[in-house]
Specification:
The complex is a heterodimer of chains A (115) and B (118). With 115 residues, chain A is mostly beta strands. Chain A is built from no helices and eleven strands. In chain A, the strands form two sheets. In chain A, strands 2, 4, 5, 6, 9, 10 and 11 form a seven-stranded mixed β-sheet that branches. Chain A has a four-stranded antiparallel β-sheet with strand order 1-3-8-7, with no helix packed on it. Chain A is globular. Chain B is mainly β. In chain B, 0% of the residues lie in helices and 49% in strands. Chain B is built from no helices and twelve strands. In chain B, strands 2, 5, 6, 10, 11 and 12 form a six-stranded mixed β-sheet that branches. A four-stranded antiparallel β-sheet of chain B has the order 3-9-8-7, with no helix packed on it. A two-stranded antiparallel ribbon of chain B has the order 1-4. The chains are: A mainly beta (115), B mainly beta (118). At the A-B interface, strand 5, strand 9 and strand 10 of A face strand 5, strand 6, strand 10 and strand 11 of B.
Chain lengths: 115, 118
């Protein structure tokens, strides 16, 4: 199906484990983003990517690793999960619906719980 | 300082009435863009409307309009003729700078929970 998908949708993991959240988009958008959503903070940018093999830090990158070997995929890895990383994670890609708007299209989110 | 401020954690509106959700922003860039997203209880993020800093007219998209007051650095969302389906969390967001690299990043406010009542 066309669009942006995330997997898994729900994940429970233990402190200290490595976990990878997957993001896939079918639009061939150059830019992709990872956000986390926590109560009282809105959405905060973790990492973003301008193209394959080009990534950069956002506001809250500590504890996360990203890679982008293919345009359509942008996985996010928590190298050693901590309880503070319990959150809802959104992947997004940047499109262009109207001239100049370049809005971001969001995936459905992954709810991650670290016990 | 907060880049995006949404001062209304929760709002109530009667069905068929108009409602304004407040958003103020802080930037020193001349080129920037303001967005509103809707997040219903199902959790997805839905793009609603966009206003560029150089756009002279306020943006409109169906029942949504953006009241852009550049000098006051405000970008309020107006929803006309509210419907029960408008009940959701609404986020204001901003991108700063040109559209290369970091200029694509969005900074979000903390959101306003809107409840539409019969």
């Amino acid at each position: 199906d066309a669009g942006i998908t995330q997997s898994p949708r729900y994940k429970i993991t233990e402190t200290g484990r490595q976990v990878t959240l997957m993001c896939h988009q079918t639009w061939s958008h150059s830019y992709m983003f990872w956000y986390r959503q926590d109560l009282g903070h809105g959405l905060r940018l973790i990492y973003y990517s301008a193209a394959a093999d080009i990534t950069d830090k956002g506001e809250v990158p500590d504890g996360y690793v990203v890679s982008r070997s293919k345009t359509e995929n942008f996985p996010l890895t928590l190298e050693s999960a901590t309880r503070s990383q319990t959150s809802v994670y959104f992947c997004a890609s940047r499109g262009r619906r109207l001239a100049g708007s370049y809005e971001q299209y969001f995936g459905p989110g992954t709810r991650l719980t670290v016990t | 300082a907060q880049k995006i401020t949404q001062t209304q954690p929760g709002m109530f509106v009667q069905e068929k009435e108009a409602v304004t959700l407040d958003c103020t922003y802080d930037t020193s860039d001349q080129s920037y863009g303001l967005f509103w997203y809707k997040q219903p209880s199902s959790g997805e993020m839905i793009f609603l409307i966009y206003q560029g800093s150089y756009d002279e007219q306020n943006a409109t998209e169906g029942r949504y309009s953006l009241n852009f007051q550049k000098a006051r650095k405000s970008a309020n969302l107006v929803i006309s003729a509210s419907q029960l389906g408008d009940s959701a969390m609404y986020f204001c967001a901003m991108r700063e700078g040109d559209l290369t690299g970091g200029g694509n990043k969005l900074t979000f406010g903390t959101g306003t929970q809107l409840k539409v009542e019969l």
